[in-house]
Amino acid sequence: MLVSESDSEKKLVQLKGLLSLDKPDLERCGLLLRELNIDFLDKTFLPIVDETKLTELHLARDVLECGAIWCILKEDHQCFNRYMAQLKHFYFDLKQHLPTSPRQYEIIGAHLLNLLSQNRVPDFHSELELLDCASLHNNRFLAYPVLLEQYIVEGRTNKAFFEACQNPPTPYYAFFSRILENTTRRNMAVCIEMSFTCIPKEDVKRIFFTDDDQFIEELVAERHWILEKEKAFSYATELERII
Questions:
Q1: By the 8 A CB rule, do 130 and 93 touch?
Q2: 179 lies in the same domain as 135
Q3: 135 and 67 in one domain?
Q4: pLDDT of residue 3
Q5: How confident is the model at residue 243 (pLDDT cuts 50, 70, 90)?
Q6: pLDDT, tens only, 179-188
Q7: Which domain holds residue 55?
Q8: The whole model's pTM is what?
Q9: Which residue blocks in the chain are alpha helix, DSSP H?
Q10: What total of structural domains would you count in the chain?
């Protein structure tokens, strides 16, 4: 049974309305997305762009963008990766045929932030090469992850944590920013082990810019740090970690 374009458009309007709510019904959004993905299954990677297909391409792109937002709201970065992989076809391969989406840079910025949060720095820089320099500096959605990466590379983690991570240009970035903060702290832990023989217990929270006791406990367990006389953490050797 063929689904009419108007039926798909109605579902898309309903989906956009749900996603715009303060507390959207993510389960209902997922059901609508599943139906829309089936409706546009054969339109996501059209080999030839024809004028008559532009409306379908617009709708298919809107569906994928809603899917990316849905993944962020349910805090599923793997799901977001899958939607982003399809959106790149529209954003870059079809850019000569489709106008820039109002949400394009917001979603690309989320993608860049996601790569940083997963410590995929080479992939982050590869993605930057697809974008023009003016947009990277002038577009607030793109400038945000670029600035964060600059702060982290320069070792200005206080800037990254207290300025940039606290003021994302869109609420959709908060999820990835939280992951990035902890990824950065884990990278800091590796550097600290290479530079110091131990860390005073009383300084741990200050060093890692956090008051989260649970995160500190997880970090200590992950790195196999040893609390000596309740005063300082020392580090296990590689052999001790394996054992």
A1: no
A2: yes
A3: no
A4: 46
A5: very low
A6: 998 999 999 9
A7: 1-102
A8: 0.87
A9: 5-19, 26-39, 54-73, 77-88, 104-117, 121-128, 133-138, 140-153, 157-159, 174-195, 204-207, 213-223, 238-242
A10: 3
